[in-house]
Amino acid sequence: MTITRSRHPDTGLTVVAISPMATDPEFVARTADHLRRLTEFGVHVPGSAKRRNPPEEWENIEIEAAVLGSIRGFVS
């Protein structure tokens, strides 16, 4: 199969966004309660303020100069 970038892919995209508050006014409270329960079970919730490891374990890491240079190449 040959991929030609000049041809339209013949696909579409539809995005429907519905506010959960429109059908459930208690959505925020229920979600907060559910996330609290997950945290109690030891599940890490991304964006939560709690840190799993003490700062001294993750603030300083050793990395090879070549790898660091490669990473810096992505952000430049």
What does this structure look like?
38% of the residues lie in helices and 0% in strands. The protein has helices at residues 27-40, 55-58, 65-75. The protein has 3 helices and no strands. The chain has a domain at 24-75. It is mainly alpha-helical and 76 residues long. It is flat, with a radius of gyration of 22 Å.
- The share of residues in extended strands comes to under 5%
Secondary structure category: mainly alpha
Distance between the termini: 36 Å
Globally, the shape reads flat
Contiguous helical run count: 3
Described by strand count, sense and barrel closure, the largest sheet is: none
- The gyration radius over C-alpha positions equals 22 Å
**Low-confidence sequence ranges:** none
SSE order: HHH
Question: What helical percentage do the residues reach?
Answer: 25-40%
What is the averaged pLDDT score? Answer: 81
DSSP E strands, number: 0
